[in-house]
Amino acid sequence: MSGDKKDDRCRCRMIHADRVARAKGAALAGKEIDDLAQLFKAMGDPNRVRLLWALEQGEMCVCDLAAYLGVSESAVSHQLRLLRQLHLVANRRQGPVLYYRLDDDHVSRLLRVALDHVRE
User: Using CA atoms, how far apart are residues 108 and 13, in angstroms rounded to an integer?
Assistant: First the structure.
């Protein structure tokens, strides 16, 4: 891909009104745009992707995840809190242990589709 700006533009100025109207008709609400941006921002961090991928393999506690990543439990808890707020992970308590898992199958599919894309 060339660094020339002209390669990224049409060679003539022409608005396709039907295409613009179709895009406007399908536009997402502001909150949905913000939520999607937050989702991709959260998944833009390599350690959070590692956490999500580990949880794709099955539920784990904070201690397990910290050992897996080689970071402190506090650092893992901080990341999990953000992922939980975005509904990417959920947790359950069993006695003194708090286990984390992917929130639902959508998260698993999102990870797998993204991985398929980058492997192409």
Answer: 42
